[in-house]
TrEMBL record:
Native source organism of the sequence: Solitalea longa
Pfam family, one: PD40
Family (UniProt): Belongs to the TolB family.
Name the UniProt record assigns to this protein: DUF5050 domain-containing protein
InterPro entries in the record: 6-blade_b-propeller_TolB-like, WD40
Gene3D superfamilies recorded: TolB, C-terminal domain (2.120.10.30)
Superkingdom classification of source: Bacteria
Length: 344
């Protein structure tokens, strides 16, 4: 890949992380709810919302909504609940001007108890000599975290690339899993722990003013001896941005977002399903934005949904066969993002 192409890819990826994570205007009006579907007694919905001005982490049950993070000087997002359901991860960035907050270069990775207490910074802005970090999630046994980070790549003349990293459960002892000097993002483990899925640029991506349109969904394994990716397979092949993969409970199917545009989530973003053999299916295709999926234990796929080209994001769900779509929580003047549905 040419130096120009790599630089454009890096800029585009940063733009994707910035735009897809937040709508950055603070909400000053009294929060108003459009849709609020009651939850079953054994379920809890976790998410991030800017209903108070900055993005904070919330928990919603059949009886109440509880704000879990309390510092309005910071934005919190990207929640991932631990497998034992005792703690959660999220990212934190200081409130500021649009260009200075809410993006991967200004993010710290934090760990909280499920009630929002005992906050602990795991990876700070200057740790590991990383330029940026994103997309941290848990291994099924809770012993490791997997994430993407932008580094100076010694295998490509110290050019900056996004790579995949594995750490222990508190973000220490980082090991670089990926070796190709392209770009990687959004890694997740399968529920059975056998695979990881992620989005990446293939080797030899042709020059383009919009190289992120060549991001594809991959599945691979982690070699326990070398601590590197092995048996890597590309599951998608198109000129779209394929990203934000999420395994369903069967560990055989992956839901992901597919965007036709150069800047993700400015245009419409569809939801698709692919099995680990590479056969893909449409889940929901229309003029809306669908991203940050989660395959929950109740059999639904929960995701962040924006009904049109403008407006606020909300939480919706759909079945893996494409039926049963519904919005479950939507505000008229605030956004709700990064859903995590927990079944007790």
């Amino acid at each position: 890949m040419s130096k120009i192409n790599v630089k454009i890819a890096q800029f585009s990826l940063i733009s994707c992380f910035l735009i897809s994570t937040f709508q950055l205007k603070a909400q000053k009006a009294e929060p108003k709810t459009l849709v609020d579907i009651p939850l079953e007694a054994n379920k809890a919905l976790y998410y991030s919302s800017n209903k108070t001005g900055t993005y904070q982490i919330y928990k919603k049950t059949d009886s109440a909504e509880i704000r879990l993070t309390q510092d309005d000087a910071f934005n919190y997002w990207g929640i991932k609940v631990a497998p034992d359901k005792k703690k959660f991860l999220c990212y934190r960035a200081a409130k500021g001007l649009i260009i200075k907050d809410n993006n991967s270069r200004n993010s710290e990775l934090w760990l909280f108890n499920m009630d929002g207490g005992n906050g602990q910074k795991l990876i700070g802005l200057s740790d590991n000599k990383w330029r940026a970090q994103s997309s941290a999630s848990w291994s099924p046994d809770g012993k490791h975290l997997i994430m993407a980070a932008e580094i100076s790549d010694k295998d490509d003349f110290n050019r900056n690339h996004w790579h995949l990293f594995l750490t222990d459960s508190v973000g220490k002892k980082p090991v670089q899993l990926s070796t190709r000097s392209t770009s990687f993002s959004d890694p997740v483990f399968s529920p059975n722990g056998k695979y990881i899925a992620y989005s990446a640029l293939p080797t030899g991506t042709p020059y383009s003013l919009c190289p992120t349109k060549f991001m594809e969904i991959y599945v691979s394994q982690i070699d326990s001896a070398s601590q590197k990716i092995k048996n890597e397979r590309k599951l998608t092949s198109n000129e779209y941005l394929d990203g934000r993969p999420c395994f369903l409970n069967d560990s055989e199917h992956i839901a992901y977002s597919i965007s036709p545009g150069c800047v993700n989530e400015v245009e419409y973003v569809d939801l698709q399903l692919v099995n680990i053999s590479g056969k893909s299916y449409d889940l929901k295709t229309d003029k809306s934005v669908k991203t940050n999926t989660m395959g929950a234990e109740d059999g639904y796929i929960y995701f962040q949904y924006r009904p049109g080209l403008t407006g606020n994001s909300c939480i919706a769900r759909i079945k893996s066969d494409g039926t049963g779509f519904s919005i479950i929580y939507q505000g008229s003047n605030f956004s709700i993002i990064n859903p995590q549905m927990i079944v007790n």
